[in-house]
Write a structure and sequence with these properties.
Layout lengths: L1 E9 L4 H12 L5 E6 L3 E3 L10 E10 L3 H14 L15 E7 L4 E3 L2 E3 L8 H10 L4 E2 L3 E2 H7 L2
Antiparallel strand pairs: 1-4, 1-5, 2-4, 3-4, 6-7, 8-9
Helix pairs in contact: 3-4
Length: 152
């Protein structure tokens, strides 16, 4: 089983309820288990500011799925919870599940880059990562605690 980190976000509808349902759908107990979830925090939108505030956090999963398979699963869960991709980039969404890290994998494939290419720039990702995995090191970037400190 590989340990992976998934960014959680929502700013439409019943945000916390939708995030909790996404976690239920991801946890099948066989291929994928949710082992920890950070505190969910209210955050300002990034990119497109004229939209509702987000609820963000990070989930720690253990999975036997390869990164591409897990990404497909994340996208399927998003669709099942009403996520569409027909609006503006960084626009409002019912749910957003981002594959942030998959073990120490470094990948650059169409549709999938690991570690997530903007992880080190986003306080709303780094704060919950430090909460659930304070000693975590992002391949090619360094310890999450140092990345968070660099934003101050």
């Amino acid at each position: 089983m590989r340990r992976v980190y998934v960014g959680l976000g929502a700013n439409l509808g019943s945000r916390e309820q939708t995030i909790r349902r996404a976690l239920e759908l991801l946890h099948d107990g066989f291929e994928t288990r949710v082992v920890a979830v950070s505190t969910l925090r209210e955050t300002d939108p990034v990119g497109l500011s004229e939209q509702p505030r987000f609820l963000n956090g990070v989930a720690v999963l253990e999975t036997s799925l390869e990164p591409g398979e897990l990404l497909d699963r994340l996208l399927s869960v998003e669709r099942s919870l009403g996520r569409t991709r027909d609006g503006p980039r960084f626009g409002p969404r019912t749910i957003d599940l981002d594959l942030l890290l998959a073990g120490d994998a470094v990948l650059e494939e169409p549709g999938l880059t690991l570690p997530h290419p903007r992880l080190h720039e986003r306080r709303f990702v780094l704060e919950p990562l430090v909460e659930v995995a304070p000693g975590l090191v992002v391949p090619g970037r360094g310890p999450v605690a140092e990345l968070l400190s660099a934003l101050d």
